[in-house]
């Protein structure tokens, strides 16, 4: 029986909204024949979230018992995944009803290795802010996303916090990058350069905005330039090496890398129109 595995890196001090996340997972329906597991990995020296997963027979919780950071925590969770597909879900975000029923069928096409639906921002007052997709809907050929990022100052048109990915492909690329910030962008830069994906027009999840978000910390912002530089370098290196999955609509490769912006040309995320 095929299985989808949600991967969540959790952290007690910033998990005030975890209850909403749990309820959104419980409300999911799966395509016929599919089953669900939720692999939760809690970071930090004083784990505190285990009890919230009691009674959820599809949840598999473990704690690091150490402060390892987001990327390593995600990769530890990935090591326990048994599903064919991975759904990324942060501990404060919300899956909308029908998310899995919408995205899983996109993987019926063997050439599709990642998929994502659209997201509204869930604001602190409970209101929602919507965003128009910066990419066309439908199949996204290998390389298209990184070309867009290179043309737009090192900002990506896909929000990695809602990705669904083939597990084997994610593992083949080494999981999340060992970067203190934007570990998911560096992963996605390699992923989207070598395989095709699918940008679904359906609204499938909510990205919660709140003051305690990791990426709003001063240290994260200071590391973000390096994280995006790593992502751009990975994209360029993969393109230059000509590494593409069989069956992907890969761009022609002439042995040269896609021209990526220099660090000084990166557009700060906070000044970029979008997330």
TrEMBL record:
Residue span, Glycosyltransferase 2-like domain: 5-118
Cross-referenced InterPro entries: Glyco_trans_2-like, Nucleotide-diphossugar_trans
Protein name (database record): Glycosyltransferase family 2 protein
Residue stretches in coiled coil: none
Pfam families: Glycos_transf_2 (PF00535)
Species, as recorded: Saccharopolyspora rosea
